[in-house]
Design brief:
The protein has 207 residues and is α+β, with helices and mostly antiparallel strands. It has one domain. Helix content is 31%, strand content 22%. It is built from two helices and five strands. The model has no long low-confidence stretch (mean pLDDT 88).
């Protein structure tokens, strides 16, 4: 009769348990990733509706969409609002790569006069109670961008007050608002240099 050493038997059980657990996690991810992705898309659509008033456009803004490379070389989507085929506004995915805990995903709505209609945080991993004040449900800080634009004369103002700018930082958390301000400014400057309404719809071809 085969005699299995107790330590070997325990190691085998632990290895089998780890294998089964890993398999279950992978299966759960596989089964839920489409649901999670759809939920994220629904949240983006709801946020677009918050940023661009419904009476400003009459096209299907979520479908009138193009893919571009941003200043970081990342593929982003640009949603375009039109009224009777005339350009009204764009809502751009904006990425702040340098948050305190990493990447911060934003949506930035800009009208045809290059003024911000609004900004919202879509996804982040900033510290709860500190950096998460970039969320509209935690603070109204993100609403300060509405109505602003970037010009040659006000570029220096596009910084947090600690850096000589006009934006408040959070107590104990300067890195997060600094990253968001920088991303929004970069998005505005980038959008001014693009002809975002000339390109045909390409979101179905996102790379």
């Amino acid at each position: 009769m085969l005699n299995i050493h107790p330590i070997s038997k325990t190691s085998f059980i632990l290895a089998a348990f780890a294998l089964v657990t890993t398999g279950l996690v992978a299966l759960t991810h596989l089964l839920t990733k489409d649901t999670i992705a759809q939920a994220q898309e629904n949240a983006i659509q709801q946020t677009i509706n918050q940023l661009v008033p419904a009476d400003m456009y009459n096209n299907a803004i979520a479908q009138d969409c193009i893919v571009k490379q941003d200043v970081n070389g990342e593929n982003i989507r640009v949603f375009r609002a039109r009224f009777d085929d005339q350009p009204v506004a764009v809502v751009l995915e904006s990425i702040a790569p340098n948050g305190y805990n990493g990447r911060i995903d934003l949506l930035v709505a800009i009208d045809t006069e290059q003024k911000i209609l609004g900004v919202r945080t879509v996804k982040h991993t900033e510290t709860p109670g500190l950096g998460d004040k970039i969320e509209i449900k935690k603070s109204n800080w993100i609403t300060y961008f509405a109505g602003l634009s970037v010009t040659e004369d006000n570029q220096k103002n596009w910084a947090v007050r600690n850096d000589g700018g006009m934006f408040d930082a959070f107590t104990g958390a300067t890195i997060t608002p600094r990253a968001v301000v920088g991303a929004v400014k970069n998005t505005l400057v980038w959008a001014q240099e693009q002809n975002l309404f000339a390109q045909g719809q390409t979101c179905g071809e996102k790379q």
